Structure formats: structure tokens, C-alpha cells
Amino acid sequence: MQDEVRDKSVALVIRVGKDGGRLTAELLKWAIRQYQKQSQEQKHGKQSIKSLVKQGAGVQNIEITDQNIKSFERCARKYGIDFALKKDPAQGKYLVFFKARDADALNAAFAEYTAKTLNRQRKPSLKKQLSHFKEIVKNLVSDKAKNRDKGGYER
């Protein structure tokens, strides 16, 4: 029983000046909020390489040559991957650093990312289709002849 109580207890040290020697309820609430904020400060998602290494897990990297990094970031956020991007200006490639324990999630995110990019390349854009159909409509010769049966113009 004593071990359970000791594991769940938290020791707070509040330093106050000579004038503020009183422990009020507001001061105690503030100290608890600061403690909770500090304990939940671990970042998730896109971050710097330094903060990724600080988290203690082994870091691996993968090289990406594609320029559509934003779509990769969306997929990585969806799968909850902690990653860091670094651009190699000499080669124009990106290095994606991630935690070793996120390898399976990263593979799933890459699979979705590549499927999206391949699907985007296969499907023609809507603007191109619209301009194509505009050209077709322009080239149609409209022959206006009165149709007496229907009472309007016939094309």
C-alpha cells in the first residue's frame, strides 16, 4: 500500500520571496499547472533533429527526392510519426529523420504517400479537362435552322 501511495505522489517545491510566504490556493494551482505542462512537453509530429534525438529513441533516416514534401507531412501526421526534415542543398534531396520505433508506421505512411502521388500523375487535372472541352465546344459549328415542329432553333 505504501509503495502505491509513494508512486502516485508528487513533491512540489515553490520558491517565494520574503514578502510572498503564504501558500494560497491560486499559487498551488499555478504550481500544478506548471508541473503538468512540463511533463507533457514532449513534441509530436514535425520537429527539429535536435529535439528528436533528445527523446532517447534511436534515429534513422531515409532520402527523398520528391518535391511534394507537404503531402508527405500530411500522411506522417495522420500516422502519428515523429519526424524531422533536412534539405541537402547540393543534391536537392530531403532527408527524413524518424525514430526507430516508428519504422512500421513510416512504411504505412510512405505507402499511402506514394499511392497518392501515383494516382495524381495518372489522373489528368480538372483544368486541362475543362480547357479541352472548351476547345471542342468552340470548334462545333452551330447551324441555326428553324425547326417548325418544335418551335425553336435546331442545331
How does this model look, in words?
- The protein is α+β, with helices and mostly antiparallel strands and 155 residues long.
- It has helices at 2-8, 25-39, 49-54, 69-79, 103-122, 126-139; strands at 59-64, 83-88, 93-99, 145-147, 152-154.
- The strands form two sheets. The protein has a three-stranded antiparallel sheet.
- Strand 2 (83-88) and strand 3 form a beta hairpin.
- The termini are far apart.
- The mean pLDDT is 76.
Brief description of this entry?
Helix content is 47%, strand content 16%. The protein is an alpha+beta fold and 155 residues long.
Keywords:
155 residues; alpha+beta; 3-stranded antiparallel sheet; elongated
Helix content: 40-55%
Structural classification: alpha+beta
Distance between the termini: 92 Å
With helices defined by DSSP (H or I, 4 residues minimum), what is the helix count?
A: 6
Shape type: elongated
Overall pLDDT metric: 76
Q: Tell me the strand order in the biggest sheet.
A: 1-3-2
Rg (CA only): 31 Å
| Chain oligomer state | single chain
- Low-pLDDT stretches are none
**Biggest beta sheet attributes:** 3 strands, antiparallel
Give the strand tally.
5
How large is the share of residues in beta strands? 15-25%
Q: What is the string of SSEs from the N terminus onward?
A: HHHEHEEHHEE
